[in-house]
Amino acid sequence: MPPKSPSQIAIVGAGDVGATIAYSLIMNAVAGDILMIDPKESVRDAQVQDLSDATFHGDTSMRIRKGTHQEGTRRWCVCVWV
User: Fold this and answer.
1) Structural domain boundaries of the chain?
2) Which CATH class is domain 8-80?
């Protein structure tokens, strides 16, 4: 397993584009921590669950989790998709 990257990325928008970006970040081990933010909590939660499976199968130490807009402001990089 590759070493965990210290970078933290927040993705605002857990729709198709946000989830695709998160998946690409997971597969390329770009960040150590990805925070998914979306006002539609059911969509966000489902995407986080699916992407968590990808981290397991991708053999990465990356962590993906659900979060709030307030948590997103404390990240190194914030990606916003509307």
Assistant:
1) 8-80
2) alpha beta
- 60 within 8 A of 28, measured Cβ to Cβ: no
For residues 72 and 44, what is the distance between their CA atoms, to the nearest angstrom?
Answer: 14
- Contact criterion met (CB below 8 Å) for 25 and 9: yes
pLDDT of 28-70, one tens digit each? 888 888 999 999 999 999 999 999 988 876 666 788 999 888 8
* pTM higher than 0.70: yes
DSSP state of 34: E
Task: Kindly compute the dihedral angle of the four CA atoms of residues 10, 15, 17, 23, in this order, to the nearest 10 degrees.
Answer: 60
- Cα first-last separation, the chain: 34
Pick 48 or 78 by higher pLDDT: 48
**Residue 20: phi, psi to the nearest 5?**
-65, -40
CB 22 within 8 A of CB 37: no
